[in-house]
Amino acid sequence: MPLIYVFGFVPEGNEKPGLPGIEPQTEVAYVTSDGISAACCEVPESDYDQEALQTNVENMHWLKDRAYHHHHIMHELQQHASMVIPLSFGTVYEKKEGLLSLLNERAADMKRLFSELQGKQEWSMKLYADRSVFDPQFQQTEADIQAKYEEIEQLPRGKQFFEKKKLSNWLKERADQELKKKGEQLHSLLEPHTSDSIRKKVWEKKLSGRTEDMVWNGVYLFKDEEAAKAAADILRGEQEKLTKEETGIKIEAAGPWPPYHFAVLEEKETTS
């Protein structure tokens, strides 16, 4: 018996036809109730029941294309409907009745979200630093750091080794603080143009796939398209300054995305 894979929700009347489903030879269909349409498709129980799905998502070969396709469908719906409530990859219902029940119970909450998100855009802003460039440049421009080096040079040779090691650790902390400060400065420049923002955990290199350190990771819900353009202009100007100063810092902004971080349906409280 097939299960129902759900991509997300759009207002009734904003459905986009002809989208391919999550599996080959399937197509996105819509289940509609109380003014809300769920974009969904049938999937085989053998791959998408709870146990099978948990196993499959650990298989990167199986997951990669499907996760990308899920995001692609959400982007297509966002472009077509201008507002969408995206769901995470792997949201599955056993029966149509369960999905209809959700639509009926949460229709008012979804309509409120659609109203709040109308015309707004989600973007991400990440900050990367090439530490082989930034750290030496930072040390050269800090007067107190140069003074500490000069103090160490006056010490006996045996003590210099340990003091230089302590100084190296201290310098790393100072450089970390300076990079965080730069991220906060950029964040504060974007804030006036946003309705909401979220500071996220920075990724390790094995996750980002980059040689540089990620030193800032934020997502921003801009008030409208003009606000997003204004923010892009600000970041462009800031990047020009950073490049001119040879800081090794790179700003990467991307979007607009479906509002994964801001179109969140709060859990309903239950009473016993």
Residue runs with pLDDT of under 50 for 5 or more positions? none
Q: How would you describe the oligomerization state of the chains in this entry?
A: single chain
Shape: elongated
Mean pLDDT: 90
Compute the number of strand runs: 9
Helicity range: 40-55%
- Element-level helix/strand string: EEEHHHEEHEHHHEHEHE
The figure for the number of domains is 2
Instruction: Quote the beta fraction.
Output: 15-25%
Count every helix, treating DSSP H or I runs of 4 or more residues as helices: 9
Tell me the radius of gyration. 25 Å
Sheet having the most strands: 5 strands, antiparallel
Q: What is the rounded distance between the termini?
A: 33 Å
User: Would you tell me the structural class of the helices and strands?
Assistant: alpha+beta
InterPro entries: GvpL/GvpF (IPR009430)
Family: Belongs to the gas vesicle GvpF/GvpL family.
GO cellular component, one term: gas vesicle
Protein name: GvpL/GvpF family gas vesicle protein
